Structures
1.
Amino acid sequence: MQIAIDGPVGAGKSTIAKECARRLGIVYMDTGALYRAVGVWCSENSIDAYNEEAVTSVLPKISPEIKLFDGVQRVIINGDDITDRIRTPEASMLASKVSSYGSVRAFLLDLQRDFAAKNSVVMDGRDIGTVILPNADVKIFLSADSKERARRRYEELLNKGADVKFDDVLADLEKRDAADSSRACAPLKQADDAILADTTGNTFEQSVELIMSIIQNKT
Ligand code: DC
């Protein structure tokens, strides 16, 4: 079974997709982690992530892998588990930048498709329903009002002990959504056959119920 969940920053894709995968007894894959890992790897290896040519030329030296430990996804690059270093605001912007390069998207395509071929999966990202899994059994476009998404992201960062301001989180989120939606290659957009799920005002449980009911109706 392949379930594609796309949507903008902070729509709750990862937490909702993870819980739906758990209830369905299938695997969850967070594809944003791959772009984050490439961006962070570049930054840690003195490659300018804002220079497309520099990033493209270094790709042959990078071997990203997705591994599951007790069902939890880890991203490994060249043997180094980078998972704990990819959740910072800086990593978000690096991921958004490198994900706009066609070379990076082509580089990560097979890894994502192979994973979905080997596992029944709930996969979240920006182009899963449009590009990665065009024949997915269920496609959902998850969204919510941008202030509410920023509030959720802000609280998540505060809980992790980050020193952030709400206005900065909102500005970053809007900047990232604009970049992700306007890029030439595989932009964030709702697939023609995706179902729109707006979670504005929902509790987490209500959102999970909404997505589970869409999945159950479709399968
Ligand atoms: O889902 P996320 O916030 O971890 O994603 C980080 C960035 O990666 C996001 O700004 C856009 C990019 N991305 C993408 O282009 N395609 C995907 N399938 C997943 C993420």
2.
Amino acid sequence: MADKNSAIAGEEPPSVAGLSIAGTSEAPAAGAVEQQIDPWSVSAGQDAEGNVLAFDYPAISNRKWNTKLIDQAILERFERVTGHRPHRWLRRGLFFSHRDLDKILDTYEKGKDFFLYTGRGPSSDNIHIGHTIPFEFTKWLQDVFDVPLVIMLTDDEKALFREDLTIEQTMKFSIENAKDILALGFDVKKTFIYSDLKFYGNGGSHMLWNAFEFSKLIPFNQVRGAFGFDGSTNTGRIFFPNFQCVAAFATSYPFIWGDDVNSPIRSKKTAAIPCLIPCAIDQDPYFRLVRDNSLRMKNPSPKPALIHSKFLTALQGPGGKMSASNPNSAIFMSDKPKEIQKKINKYAFSGGQETVELHRELGGNPDVDVAYQYLTYFEDDDEKLDKIYAAYKSGEMLTGELKKECINLMQAYVKGFQERRTQVTDEVLEQYMKPRKLEWLGKKGKSAPPAET
Ligand code: TRP
């Protein structure tokens, strides 16, 4: 029942982004607030008493947006096809939903090319673990599949959507963020990272043509509902989604495939190369738009496939949001060991009891405990994790002990990052940002199993 305000017609359900997403179809109780998820604002629901609720992911993705939940069957197929055990973030449901991942596995199985595309909106130069995790995961996918990767830094988007930021500032953040992202260890032969505002004018002409051709297919009605635009929205915001969409077309990067950048022709063959996009679930509205229209391009591109992640839990607990403007909401990649220790001890929401005696008697609640949650992000050993879960729940393990485990892991992660970050000089960055032909082997590559970080 798509009306004329509807986001996106076609196979996907009608207008969804910007709508509040209730856990059920029932009206919320009086005084309750529904969760809200769209590409620019994310907030958890509240119950009638004003308590913040955890996000209800199946409600939004599976039931409202009609994505597929990642289940055991697809994980088993992933392992069969790639020969790699699924990453712990897949096993534990941090990446929990997808569109057409099975088709990407078909493509890979047949030894055909596809590429990975992800991005970041550079809104500050202060990144935290909520920012690094999606990129760590993308790097793992790149290692497993041995495929090209493009990383889009949307300094245009951030300057348009944040009243307080200028394009000079966001372009500067792009450079700082790019260095941080590269400190995660992407292979320079297979990775192209770009600042939108610089690339469009310098090697990105095919992307501009794609954006204009694509924009011609998209009436305002179609984005108005999806992104919450109205008559007073600045026109840059209205045009921007075209860019984030066409970044999923292989023809936006002719140099990667050895196509002629100076030719006015965008290759039909290149257009047919599939794309897989790892992203947080709030980015899905963009990609529904491209999925519904990619086949309408003169040189059609397949609907991009997606793997969606949940939001990472803020230190304050489920429903909270890691925020660059609140240093106590997250572990930042610039934090010193002592700061990490203090933040986790002081701010990490605890599922423990008020006193040691009570804790021993009643046990803790690992399901709401943030230190435990972070262990599930970074501790790879499933057995060890199960033991900690049981020990904390029974009261045998105390909150301080659980937090210590978490502090050790987080300190090691941040330290490793900081060491690698010092290696990413301007010269290194320049290599990754240069439009050039990439080299990859896909299924033909017999690379060693990638290490999980
Ligand atoms: N809009 C995203 C943000 O604000 C950045 C982005 C662009 C992105 N393209 C992407 C994120 C593809 C994930 C996948 O952070």
